[in-house]
Amino acid sequence: MSAEILLDPVGDLPAPPDVRVIETEVDFLRLVLTPHPLLIRGERLCAWAEAFYTLRGQPVRVVESPTSILRRAFPPLSAEQARELAQKIGKNYLSAEEVSSAFVLNACFPSDYTIWQGTPSHQHAASWLLWLLGHTPTEAESIVLKEFASEMKRRSGEAPYAKLYDAENALQAKAWLWRWLGAEEPPISDLNEFPLELPSKILNAIRDDWVKRIVATNGDFFAEMMPFPLPLALRQELARLTANYYQKNAYQLTRTALQKLSPYLDSQTLTSLEKVLPPSVPAALPEEEDSVLDWFEHHYLPYRRWQAAFGDKTAHETVVSCAQAFSRWLLERYPRWLLDGDRLAFQKSARLATPDALTLCVILDGLPAWDAEWLVQELSAHVPRLTLLQKSYCFSAIPTITEFAKEALLKGVPPQNASQTTPIGKILPDNRSPKNHLQEALAGQVWFWRVEQPDKAYHFEQDDKRERQVRAELQVIIDEIEKVVNEIPDTLRLNILLTSDHGRLMNPRVSRRLQVDAEMQAHGRVAWGNFQRAFPETGYIVSDNAEYVELYGERFGITHNLRIAWGEACFGNDARTEAYPHGGLFPEEVIVPWFIFERDAQAPEIEIRLTGKGEADMSGEVTIEVLNHSPLMLECQEIIFSHGAKLNGTWLIERLKETTFKTHLTPWPNKSNAASLTATFLFSQPNGVTFTRQVSPVLQIETLYESPDALLKDLDL
Q1: Phi and psi (nearest 5°) for 596?
Q2: pLDDT block averages, 10 residues each, the chain of length 717
Q3: Rounded CA gap, 611 and 287, in Å?
Q4: CA–CA distance, 146 with 607 (Å, rounded to integer)
Q5: How far apart are CA 689 and CA 684, in angstroms?
Q6: Residues 6+ apart with CB under 8 A from 430
Q7: What per-residue confidence (pLDDT) applies to 711?
Q8: pLDDT at residue 712, as a whole number
Q9: Would you state the pLDDT for residue 21?
Q10: What was the pLDDT predicted at 176?
Q11: Reading across the β-sheet that carries 634-641, which strands appear in turn?
């Protein structure tokens, strides 16, 4: 077999192993008749050799270097770039038919074979964009990549994803991907969901740009993206980023926005957003006096609490406007209330006595409405024997500081009359546990328990510990109330009133910038003294600079004229600040809780079973089992049966255990009324309160004359 003769007219084909290279006529003549395979280079020499071997009948093969083929396939390639690619391909011979962009790229990036051999689709286009973002190709590779993208776009035809193959480098790929995911304008809306998981680096970059758009749209970006084809995981991520924005900018959150976010948030995040969701802006202050307390509880207070924690400047201005409207409303009516009514706390305390019950009035110093709400919930949960009978609010005496308001509350009169009036009930020692003192208390009496908390915690606790300390102090109060409920005699009907002498401003940082004149005393947001001023008929004047309002004391039931902050500042003549002060006229300072609990108002939980056996219309014995789950000793006084029979007695039912007693019932029910038979029990509690329970007895009924079938059955015949 003759040796292979290769002709390389271009002269750049690398010599294969064991092939002799001929580049001159001399070399050709020296080797032409040897048995070695030859590579003949150069156009002139190849033509001479081809003629020579043709005449001898020996075949030759014209070959072309990979570099040459690559340059012909990809004209923008330089010779050096073609040699770079040829080296990566690593073949001695190439045919023009096998050289394609996919062939070359597979040689350059063999691990990404599925991209180079794939067909155009949404998923393939997504892979293409991610690949471009994850690689930095050389200039030579970039030329082939551009050809590959053009080919994919041609093969895509009119498909929506065809435009994605316009991306030929990382910068272009980022622009298209960002538009596909809505992170850059203009977004693309005619594609399917992005089908692949994003690498962490790209996802983090997407997050950053999403956040920019969330901020730029005040959180509305999530709603704008609802029509866009985001996969669930990415939409959940976008929802989480939007939730983070609303946590820091709660005043932008709306119920509609929260409803759109909710399907994509975990329960914990959703709950936290519910807490920061802005309530409705308070409705206009009503004119009717009975409606204002409802406005405070359901309109002003929820918005005020939200504003204090999350609100912006606009929300703060809304609160101040509402508060000052309320202040004017109050000042116009307060003098009339002093003459008659029960809207003021001290007027209510004057009517506290209940002939058949002991009333314990717990006065928590400076208890604001928001803490009162928490206290009621905790008390109801921890002391089940207490039932909340009345949850309402009323108005404190003016000014809203302890020195004036507490004495009025204890004595049931306006502050100006307090010094000449005796208390309306017995006053327990300050801050001492009341349970021991109440052992000898009697029905019809009113006892006052004054507690210096939470006022002390608000005034003196450090900012970062204040809320925790307030809750701790209130928990102590709950524990003491529980002792009272469980340890004073059960024979007493017991009512417990929770109230306060004043509320406090919901603001953790208030400046003490209002000047106190030499002839005046001051505390928090009020100053008082005998300064002279000509007052109009209303009895009050708002200062020209709207910093404070001055009140004519006599018209407002006080021995001194007052100067009360009109905004949120305090009196003090210094640069310090004060946390949650009081003394002013804001609703949360003036309106105080009036929450009444009754001990053992709810009937205790018991289980009853009534069984027995007797002769129809005659007599029989019943067994009654009562399981008493309550800590109260009960008395069963009467049992009335629906067929007309009645049992009277004084059967004692032990606490926290089962009691069984037996008695005779006459007449015994017959079979005609047995199916619908019921028994109604009348029980009394130690305090005299009664309640009933109805059960269906399980009674066996015997008859004197049995039917023949029954007699035969008894004889086993």
Answers
A1: -115, 125
A2: 76 76 86 85 85 87 80 91 88 78 93 93 95 95 95 94 95 94 85 91 93 94 88 92 93 91 92 89 92 95 92 93 97 94 94 93 95 94 92 96 95 95 90 82 93 87 85 94 93 95 93 89 93 91 92 94 95 85 97 96 92 93 95 94 92 94 94 90 92 94 64 49
A3: 62
A4: 85
A5: 6
A6: 450, 451, 452
A7: 46
A8: 47
A9: 86
A10: 95
A11: 646-653, 634-641, 679-684, 690-695
Report residue 545 as tokens. 């600079």
Beta bridge partners of residue 357, listed in sequence order: 354
User: What are the distances in angstroms from CA 536 to CA 339, 352, 421, 472, 557?
Assistant: 19, 36, 30, 47, 17
- What residues form DSSP beta bridges with 625? 609, 660
- The amino acid at 98: E
Residue 44: exposure state from Cβ atoms within 10 A (0-12, 13-18, ≥19): exposed
Position 717 scores a pLDDT of: 47
Report the distance separating Cα 481 and Cα 475, nearest Å.
Answer: 10
Q: Residue type for 594, please?
A: W
Q: Contacts for 235-239 with beta carbons within 8 Å, 24 or more apart?
A: 235/264, 236/264, 236/265, 237/203, 237/207, 238/210, 238/264, 239/264, 239/265
Do the Cβ atoms of 169 and 143 come closer than 8 Å?
no
The first and second tokens of residue 369, run together, are: 């409405």
Q: Are 345 and 394 in contact (CB under 8 A)?
A: yes
What is the gyration radius of the CA atoms in the chain, in angstroms?
47
The 3-state DSSP class for residue 327 equals helix
**Per-residue model confidence (pLDDT) at position 12:** 67
Task: For residue 15, give both structure tokens.
Answer: 């010599």
Tokens describing residue 499: 């109230």
Euclidean distance between CA atoms 401 and 503, whole angstroms: 9
Q: Read off the amino acid at residue 475.
A: Q
**Which residues neighbour 509 within 8 Å (Cβ) at sequence distance 6 or greater?**
577, 579
Residues 6 or more apart in contact with residue 289 via CB below 8 angstroms: 333, 343
Beta strands 606-615; 620-628: pairing state: antiparallel
